[in-house]
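assembly run, all chains below
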Amino acid sequence: MTDSVPQPPTTLGTRPTTGGVTLLTPPAPLAHLAWRDLMVAAVVEETADARSLVLDAPHWPGHVAGQHVDVRLTAPDGYQATRSYSLSSGPGEAPTITVQEVEDGEVSTYLVRDIAVGDTLGVRGPIGGYFVWGGAHRPLLLVGGGSGLAPLRAMWRAADPTAPVVVLASVTTPTRLLYADELADRVRAGTAAATVHVSRAELPPDAVRPGTPLEALTLRSGRVDTASVKAAVAACGGPDADPAVFVCGPTSFVEALVGQLAAAGLDPRAVRAERFG
Amino acid sequence: MAGFLGRRREHDDRVPPGQYVTHDFPVLTAGPTEVVPTDRWQLTVSDGTTSETFDWDALHALGLQTLTTDIHCVTHWSKLGTTWRGVPVPTLLEAAGVDDLPYALVTSYGGYTTNVPLEDLVDRDAMVAVEFEGEPLRPEHGGPVRLLVPHLYFWKSAKWLTRIELLDYDHPGFWEVAGYHNHGDPFLEQRYHGD
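ok done. output:
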């Protein structure tokens, strides 16, 4: 069988229309997306309850940072369960999803606890042309709550290395921060700035031990606040630098952050958001 | 390996293929949440010749009805037995005095668009909704007024509704141009273009 190959979107932006509203420019249409059985090529334990599954996908058409796939699991009796997961690998890399276990989750629990290298799962994609980043030379501001960092990792990997990349993350506890090593490496290399808010607990005194990835990151207690948002926007060069802004996380987080970003001077229509839960 | 077994489940004819039942009400929006005060909200209904604009009071004057129905999002969640109040679309179209053209293009505050065949707006349960579960519809769920087309995937139920334009041709909207299915029937699993 041959898989049809969806073309990644190439044009994104806004165009004005009548009546003062702004239409989001849609990307090119996708061809039909077929289900494929893909093998898990590698498993990366990210935190105690999240891991990344690297998929072996021959003839993968390539994806744009921010796109997602639908994942379908089939039980021996034919029962199927389907969910959507963001791709967390960069363009040109093997498609990878990062799954955080949801309490009492039917699919996430299997993907985090049970699936192993060599197992297969049904996948269709890549999908999506709105919450995507093609990697233009613009400052990039990435704001993630919890597992909302997954598509944002694909974006910082896609970023122009000569443009500022600013990451603002919110996690319940420091140990639940996804990609801590990778973020720390980028900060040490000077290719990103990262501030991590720990919303649910006071920062434990031993949270930042020398030599651990968290040492390179700026940690703050409590939810993301106006000061952090303003600092992140300033680190991008301010609103006039026209940063590309992506926010992903639980609904309440996204709603709050979009408001704070607007208060920091960004046009809400320039902020692309993806919500879950 | 441990194979996937899934939950033991009772088959429920109300749940379309590929969907799971959620008790939350997730939010999916292409863009920021629009906040439109009711005293500034307006809905224009047009067929290209006749055009009528309703404000908050004029909409309510048409009479609200209650609908209990299931809703289905293309991101695989379904929510069963949700209760809404609003004005049935046929009532609205009749009050506007527009012709029965075969297609509608629906526009939101913020610029989102979606297309719905007229028959899906008038032959089923579609309404212009102002309440969800006995409360005013909140902005993140499309308040003050959203379209509700419960028998199609929920991206057809445009939030922050401000315009319904009847057309004699089909004009695909935001997600439809972006590769999602033009019609979006969840029971036929019409998720993406070509399904």
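The longest helix of chain A spans residues 251-263.

The two ends of chain A are 36 Å apart (CA to CA).

not gonna interpret more than that til we talk
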